[in-house]
Amino acid sequence: MELETPDAQSCLSYRCPYCGTVDVDAYEVLSPGESVRLVCDGCREHFNVLVLECPNCGDETAHTCPITPSASDLQKLSCQRCHHALIDDEDDLRSMD
After folding, report:
1. Dist CA 62 CA 79 (whole Å)
2. Which of 1, 52, 74, 83 is the most exposed place for a label (fewest CB within 10 A)?
């Protein structure tokens, strides 16, 4: 069985916070609200990727961080498309625990 590779433009992309290597979530294994620890193909460093869905426009944004982000770090995140805050309140933060 052969799997089709999705068009890279329709996939969520993220950048290594250490070396800047860009990768894509071609098979959509990253879920909104979950922080996932990955290894960069370029520099082999570990980092976290957190996908959040904008409550305003619905766009999904991938945020990368070398360490697990704190609650105050998460509250500073905004949508790359409409710049709306991605974390509206404390309930949003608790749902990510």
Report:
1. 10
2. 1
- Distance CA(8)–CA(27), nearest Å, equals 10
- The token pair that represents 73 in the structure block: 């770090």
* Token digits of residue 18: 């250490």
Amino acid at 95: S
**Residue 19 CB partners (closer than 8 Å, separation 6+):** 40, 42, 43, 45
> How far, in Å, CA of 38 to CA of 44, rounded?
9
Name the nearest CA neighbour of 91 among 37, 57, 55.
Answer: 55
What are the tens digits of pLDDT across the range 76-91? 999 989 999 998 765 5
Ramachandran area for residue 28 (φ above 0: left; ψ -120 to 50: alpha; else beta): left
CB atoms < 10 A from the CB of 41, how many?
A: 10
